[in-house]
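Hey, I was hoping to borrow your eyes for a little while. I've dropped the whole record in just underneath, so have a look:

——
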Amino acid sequence: MGQIHVKKIDVTLYRFDGQVMTTTLGTKKGDQVELDGTKQVDRVVVRVSMDNGESYTINDVQSPYPAVTDITSLF
C-alpha cells in the first residue's frame, strides 16, 4: 500500500493531565498539525485510514517536554 491509498490521518494527543485531543492531518507530503502538550510526558498516536477501509497505527510514542514529534518522515 502506498501513500496514494491514504484516505485519512488522525493524530491523537493523550496529555499527562488526562485531556485527549484528536485532529486530522492532511494526506499530502509536508502537511503538519500542532497540538499543545504539557510540560510532562505526553503520548502521541497516529492512525492512518486507507481507501480499502483498513486502518493502521503507524506511530505511538511517549513525547517528553520539550519535544516536537515529526511524523512527516514516515511518508
Observations:
- The first strand starts at residue 6 and ends at 14.
